[in-house]
Write a structure and sequence with these properties.
This protein has about 525 residues and is α/β, with parallel strands linked by helices. It is built from 19 helices and 21 strands. Helix 8 packs antiparallel against helix 10, helix 14 runs parallel beside helix 15 and helix 18 runs parallel beside helix 19. The chain has a 6-stranded mixed sheet with strand order 8-13-12-11-9-10, sandwiched between helices. The structure holds the ligand NC(=O)c1ncn([C@@H]2O[C@H](COP(=O)(O)O)[C@@H](O)[C@H]2O)c1NC=O. Keywords: Hydrolase, Multifunctional enzyme, Purine biosynthesis, Transferase.
Length: about 525
């Protein structure tokens, strides 16, 4: 039976209603300064911890609940007569429920102006101590660190004569240790990322010990292959517009490969300001296009490689309308992603319940880090968020690009960033015409891109070509010009740049340097 609860919260969401409901069930409420005031001002009968312990809150709140009368009341095992006798001897009543949430450390250090002093003052000491005491003694104490659990706890108390069952107590305790571990991890990350001045965290710094916290969204039936197990975890606060913000409107459960490919599709389609469509197979775009409408963009993207598009993951950066949905529904599609779906579009797929429809609010925010697991370690880097502006481009050939060529080159360059290296992408009129991906030699990627265009019946005459990294020799350039390209964009920076520029002049094509490389592995 819960007779006494201690409530001490920074985030006061829902706490008044919760405390009222506890009081209505006859629970005696202890509370700290600000929380006690809120409750008392709103008619809840409450005893201040300072009055309860006979010891005032002191040192600017650094010491409020750190007292044997509090921790004894929490930590005493009710099944051990010696513990019960010790409480009696010292006049300590038991505390059967602890409701605590912590000083907002993460929110404080996320602010640009946060100083070390601000951060230090927002390290909660008394709160985690009470949480850990209660979680350790969860057999006898209900511990609530998340306002989202208030309803669940009350429901259970109402249904069980004021009691909370062991399973719930155990689950709440596990949540506490995950929460305090995450809290301490955030403190460690912040302190180890501090710059020389010990005042501001340098945003680019990589902490000496890296603490990562993700929450499980789902376990999958299997991983990349059926003999591998898998689960999807997301950031505790995923960046706006990222895949993890998806809302699944219909369809089968997402698989491991679905999520990986959906991410590739979504990240690529988001890069375009114009209405765009991206079709992904095995993490590579097999068709990308912009158009006046989703229907037109899809039609063009599909033309690039209709064979590979079968069973693909398709993403749009505009609301998907009925007409585009009807066109897409004619092909086998695994996952379809858009910022929104019209009622007509939803209706089209109502008859195809296996198709997974994901709605993701559009936003171009980027993750703080990219990760790649390697044997026994983890590689971290800042994400490849760079989009080269026209002003940064350098025309290195005698021939200057026409406005149309410039448009095609910019489009090709945007796409190349999302194609696995070595990437060669032929484009024209806002669509991919041939994509060569993931080859160990650039010249092979160039050959494959042109073979794929032939297979799709697309002419590469007068196309623009993007290469994710420089041409090390003129041979790769010769392959794309032989195939029909009249303008080429790549980072430049090779020892043999001059040889490649001379070759471009000799072949009468336009060549632009971006000064930026987009390797993707
Ligand atoms: N020092 C202590 O003994 C202590 N006991 C509880 N707290 C925290 O004080 C906060 C609530 O304070 P208030 O009720 O005054 O608004 C909670 O976030 C709680 O975790 C403490 N503060 C920091 O360590």
């Amino acid at each position: 039976m819960i007779k006494q609860a201690l409530i001490s919260v920074s985030d006061k969401t829902g706490v008044l209603e919760f405390a009222k409901a506890l009081a209505a069930q006859g629970v005696n409420i202890l509370s700290t300064g600000g929380t006690a005031k809120l409750l008392a001002d709103n008619g809840v009968k409450v005893t201040e911890v300072a009055d309860y312990t006979g010891f005032p809150e002191m040192l600017d709140g650094r010491v409020k609940t750190l007292h044997p009368k509090v921790h004894g009341g929490i930590l005493a095992r009710r099944d051990l007569p010696e513990h019960v006798a010790a409480l009696e001897q010292h006049g300590i009543p038991t505390i059967d429920m602890v409701v605590v949430n912590l000083y907002p450390f993460q929110q404080t250090v996320a602010k640009d102006q946060c100083t070390l002093e601000d951060a230090i003052e927002n390290i909660d000491i008394g709160g985690p101590t009470m949480l850990r005491s209660s979680a350790k003694n969860h057999k006898d104490v209900v511990v609530v660190c998340d306002p989202a659990d208030y309803g669940r706890v009350l429901d259970e108390m109402k249904a069980n004569n004021g009691e909370v069952g062991y399973d719930t107590k155990f689950a709440l305790a596990k949540k506490v240790f995950a929460h305090t571990a995450q809290y301490d991890g955030a403190i460690t990350n912040y302190l180890t990322a501090l710059g020389e001045d010990k005042q501001h965290a340098t945003r680019s710094a990589y902490p000496q010990t890296l603490n990562l916290h993700f929450e499980k969204v789902q376990e999958m039936r299997y991983g990349e292959n059926p003999h591998q197990s898998a689960a999807f975890y997301r950031d505790l606060a995923p960046v706006a517009g990222s895949l993890a913000n998806y809302r699944q409107l219909q369809g089968k459960e997402l698989s491991y490969n679905n999520i990986a490919d959906a991410d590739a599709a979504w990240e690529c389609v988001k890069t375009f300001e114009e209405t765009a469509c991206v079709i992904i197979k095995h993490a590579n775009p097999c068709g990308v296009a912009v158009g006046a409408s989703p229907l037109e963009a899809y039609g063009k993207a599909l033309q690039t490689d209709p064979t590979s598009a079968f069973g693909g993951i398709i993403a749009f950066n505009r609301e998907l309308d009925g007409k585009a949905a009807e066109a897409v529904a004619k092909q086998f599609v695994e996952v379809l992603i858009a910022p929104a779906f019209t009622a007509e579009a939803k209706q089209v797929f109502a008859a195809k319940q296996n198709v997974r429809l994901l709605e993701i609010p559009l936003d171009n925010a980027v993750n703080a880090y990219d990760f790649k697991r390697v044997g026994g370690g983890l590689l971290l880097q800042s994400p490849d968020a760079k989009n080269v502006a026209v002003a940064e481009l350098k025309v290195v050939t005698k021939k200057q690009p026409s406005p149309q060529q410039m448009q095609d080159l910019m489009f090709a360059w945007r796409v190349a960033k999302f194609v696995k290296s070595n990437a060669i992408v032929f484009c024209a009129n806002g669509m991919t015409m041939g994509v060569g991906a993931g080859q160990m030699s650039r010249i092979d990627s160039a050959r494959i891109a042109s073979i794929k265009a032939q297979n799709a019946g697309l002419s590469l005459a007068n196309t623009a070509v993007a290469s994710d990294a420089f041409f090390p020799f003129r041979d790769g350039l010769d392959v794309v010009v032989d195939a029909g390209a009249t303008c080429v964009i790549h980072p430049g920076g090779s020892m043999r740049d001059q040889e490649v520029i001379d070759a471009a002049d000799e072949r009468g094509v336009v060549m632009l340097f971006t000064g930026t490389r987009h390797f993707r592995h």
